Fold this protein.
Amino acid sequence: MKDTALRIADFKDSIFGVISRLAREHGAVNLGQGFPDFDGPEWLKDIAYRKMQEGHNQYAPFPGSISLRTEVSNYYKSLYALSYDPETQITITVGATEAIYVVINALVNPGDEVVVLEPFYDSYVASIKMAGGIPVPVTMHAPDFTVDKGELARAITPRTKLLILNNPHNPTGKVWSRQELLDVCELAIKNDLYLLSDEVYEFLLFDGAKHLPTATFEGMLERTITVSSAGKTFGLTGWKIGWICANERVTRACRLIHQYVTFSVSTPIQEAVAEGLKRLPSYLPGFVELYKSKRDFFHRELTGLGFDFKIPPGTYFMMVPIGSKTKLSDVDFALKLIQDNKVATVPPSAFYLKSRDGERYLRFCFAKKEETLRQAATNLKGL
Ligand code: PMP
Ligand code: GLN
């Protein structure tokens, strides 16, 4: 038989799938793949069920159900003073993953360069390659995962089309400061780049940190494409509802692709998420408090075990240095922990193209029941 497509020749199984499979095989506590091991809100599941009973069961309009696009538009307006027209500037996708694929394929021509800040979410580079683009990594330097402005400037060439930023940041838990964002925006404007701003953890901020959407910076609204996801916000990652907010021209290009990739997204679940977004003001404080208590608890546990790292201000991940515990690389240490200690984590070298910094860390997901986190800590004792 003839070969499969060249564009995927160097693709491997995603690290999240690999780790979750190993965790199952070895009966390990899974702090690898980023998803809660507890359910999302009862009231929202009830609404989804009701939406099905009410007959929201046939194809939604391909850009997304108008009720959800309207509610997305409403929250950007009320929380961030950003105006997106639901008719022409908002598209609903199958999670942020489809959104990322669609945006990149809508913008990138074969041979175009895309700057990715590493460690990066793994689907960025895969989507760039599927579009025929060239990923250009710029390293966020440990321990604070800062980007050197000069280094970023030098990575941009006349062939650069797009820069991808993730804030709050997976896997490090970093929340970008205003000045750091200003520096990136300044380079995007100076070099006339599009900026894909992955803000799926926009509501997972702790200790008074405030979300600063890239699109709110001066001169950035037109060139920023913002992606987010209900999966994180409502702790229902399997619902797979995401969205793209962009200018009309980019939205049209995204929709041309989206209509042939998925056409449209689950109708009753979109209707439910629309209701969920209406209730953000009353829902968010409890949501943030719940994850903050998990973060604080697990940080205490890990520091008690001799891991030394700053508590992350955002997301549900911790990037934990392993140098004090082992000489092994992240991959080997992660395998050892799964086999010997029955704790699964993600080895972050999968999120790097250039630097070997990832080999000195493991990523822990703390979006888990307290008993799960406690069990993981118990299993790690004596390391
Ligand atoms: N971007 C980042 C930074 C993520 O961590 C994730 C997944 N957890 C996604 C995008 C994809 O989100 P979704 O599950 O909505 O496809
Ligand atoms: N975003 C989740 C993580 O970072 C996983 C999503 C996936 O498995 N594709 O772990």
Observations:
- Residues 42-279 form a domain with the Aspartate Aminotransferase; domain 2 fold (CATH 3.40.640.10).
